[in-house]
Amino acid sequence: MSAPGTCDHRGVAGSKGKQKTVRDMILSLALIGVAAAVIYIFVPHDDHAPDIKRVDYSVELAGARRAASYPVVAPQGLPASWKATSVRYQAEDSDRWHLGFQTPDGQYVQVEQSAGKRADVIDTASQGGSATRHTERIDGRTWTRYTGGRYDALVLEGTPGSTTVVAGTGSLAQLTDMATALRIK
After folding, report:
1. Euclidean distance between CA atoms 153 and 124, whole angstroms
2. DSSP H/E element including 173
3. Rounded Cα distance, 16 and 33, in Å
4. Are 153 and 145 in contact (CB under 8 A)?
5. In the structure, what pLDDT confidence band is assigned to residue 171 with cuts at 50, 70 and 90?
6. 3-state secondary structure at position 125
7. Residue 5: its pLDDT value, please?
8. Which has the closest alpha carbon to 164: 126, 122, 127, 133?
9. DSSP states of 20-83
10. Could you tell me which of 152, 110, 116 has the C-alpha nearest to residue 134?
11. Which residue has the higher pLDDT, 88 or 7?
12. Is the separation of the CB atoms in 15 and 22 below 8 Å?
């Protein structure tokens, strides 16, 4: 408290300091916004999906064909624009063979083959698909169409000892192209 007749400047100086602090904060935020805009405009950025690396599956295919309890299939004669992106063989998981591809238009098509329980193999490969009444005759073999899951699928009929599924986000024509290309060596 100040003595009578004297002036207390603490209150006035304190409010001027607060006004200056708020003004400085607003100016700082504006400056940061301008800097962010300049960086966004002038620094190149790429909004498309990253390029997926092509894999060579020949070694895994040879190993799977030696180890599996069934004849392992793989595509032969697909255009080079189909890019193999994933491959694995798991003997401990019902002789499970997987081969994934990126199609020329960026879709995904996979070949799944296993000696496991047929319903489980189909469900896993199609991620919840159900059989339709439609079948396709492809290269002399009958394939049943599955839809409704994350992936559409074609399931090869009449193969004792294993289940073969071609599934993915690709079109029915792309799934058919893969099924047509499958060969046993």
Report:
1. 11
2. helix 172-181
3. 26
4. yes
5. very high
6. helix
7. 55
8. 122
9. HHHHHHHHHHHHHHHHHHHHHHHS----SPPPPPP---HHHHHHHHHH-SS--EEE-S--TTSE
10. 152
11. 88
12. no
> In the block, which residue shows the tokens 């003004």?
23
- CA distance readout (Å), 56 to 22, 85, 183: 61, 8, 17
Give the Cα separation of 74 and 112 in Å (integer). 10
pLDDT over threshold 70, residue 46: no
Give pLDDT tens digits for 17-29. Answer: 667 788 888 888 8
Q: Single out the residue of 80, 144, 87 nearest to residue 113, CA to CA.
A: 87
> How many residues are present in the chain?
185
Distance (Å, whole) CA 99 – CA 55: 10
Alpha carbon 158 to its chain's center: 31
